[in-house]
Every structure is written in C-alpha cells, then in structure tokens.
Amino acid sequence: MNKNNDALSMDASMPRLDRIVERLCHPLSLDTVWHNPAQGADMPSIIELKEIMSRLSAAIFPGYFGSASVRRESMRYHLSANLDSIYRKLGEQILRGFCFDCGRRKDSLPSCATDSGQAALAFMDQLPEIRRLLAGDAHAAYEGDPAASSPGETIFCYPSMRAMLHHRIAHVLYTLKVPVIPRIMSEMAHSHTGIDINPGASIGEEFFIDHGTGVVIGETCILGRNCRLYQGVTLGAYSFPKNPDGSLIKNIPRHPILEDSVTVYSGATILGRVTVGRGAVIGGNVWVTADVPPGTRVLQENSHV
Length: 305
Description:
Strand order of the largest sheet: 1-4-7-10-13
CATH class of the largest domain: Mainly Alpha
Structural class: alpha/beta
C-alpha cells in the first residue's frame, strides 16, 4: 500500500517538476548564470589546484610540507620529480583559466594553449625568488613575535605564513596575467586563515601579519619592506568611481600605499589611495582617509589629524 502511494505521489509531482525545469531553462533565467566554456575546455579544478599548492609548499619548504623523509643528498631527485609534476598540472589549470576567460579575451583555443605553456614556465622560473621572499617573511614573523620559538615554527604553524605562501604564488601568476587561478589560490588561504589578500596586492620583503584574523588587503595596495599588520586591519578602497552608464571603473589605483617599516595595529581602517609614510604607526581602531607623514603616530585621540 505504501509503495503504491509513493508511486502515485511521484506521478503527481512530475508535471510540477517539469514546469520547474522549464522555468530554469528559460533564457531569462539561464542566460544570466550559464557558463558556456570554449569547446573542449573544462573549468579549473579546485582539487587539482589544492594538490599544486601542496606540491609547491613542499618544493619551497622541504621537510615542513610533503614527505618528511626527504634527505638532502636525494633532494635534487625529489625536487626534479615534484617540479615536473607541478609544471604539467599548473600548465593545465592555467589553460583552463585562459579558456574560462576566452569570451572576454576573444582568443582561440590554440592561443590559450600557447599562452598557458609560456605562463607556466615563467612562473616556475620565479620559484627561487618566491622562496627568498617567504624566508624573509618567516624571519620577520620570528623577530616580530616574542611567542615564536623559531622561524620554522612560523612556517609550519602561523596563519600569516600560510596566507603569504598563497599570496606570493598567486601574485606571480597575477602579474603574468593569468585569469581566475590567482584568485582561487588566494581564496583557499582566505577560507583557511581569515586573511583576505587580493593577488594583485604588491607586498615588500619581510612582511608579517600578527594573529591575522579579519585582515583585508585590496588589489591595488602597495606595501613596502618590513611592514607589520595586526588582526582586523583593512586596507581598502574609499569610493568606487563609475562610468557614465553606472558600471564600476576597473583597474585604477584605489587602495593605500604603505611605505617601509609601517605598523598598523588591530582594527585600524585605511581607505583610498593614501600614502602612509615610512616608519609611521597607525593605532588600533583608527580610521584613516588622508596621507600620513613619515614617522607619524596616529592614535584615537588625534585620529582626525
């Protein structure tokens, strides 16, 4: 009896489901959300990109990530095999990124394939520099946090180092004009650490975010050497200029510039294309929308200056 009732109920629901399908397939609904990829092109794979990041972590910080049994005398063999895999996998994902963007770029699939191979190789060439910058970030984290027992602890444990590992990699891909992939890599770190760094942000050497949760660094930010941020800091845009048709104007400098050795304490908000001068200190919970001279201390009681 129950089986018959279930069958009758299913039969009665089919016309309604058919009508829902019809509504979802209507051009007014479907055209706004459907991604129609280039012929033979798949979407970028989050799973593959996670593996690529895992392999890159092991290549940049051997012993901390990946196999702990790798010995120095066999390092060349392991690194060679790992880099070959990274190059092939990353090239495929970059190709998918280019194809994802093809509608706007009006490129053909062969052009995407050529561009992706060149971009992947150019990225691999930057790995020694990425490692150098990240080693400096680890040193800054150790020197800047009395709770850190060693630079190695910051590499293995600190959310800011995970965020910067992703950012240093994503930023290189961003400068190579790879679509989509840099943002995916940045959002992987964002979801894990609570630190939101746009891959376009230019960040100098020996950078450290203490604690880190809630930090936001916008796309056109420029940070000098030896800057330090604390949790809850926002380096954002003050306003969003628009075209005559009301659409946002893209690709214009709209985020702050922090010169060398600037410290920004927790909860501070710095908005717009303002410059915070070398050695300045921005106190906690301060709102800044104007240039700050070098060496200045901006505190709550005089934050209107």
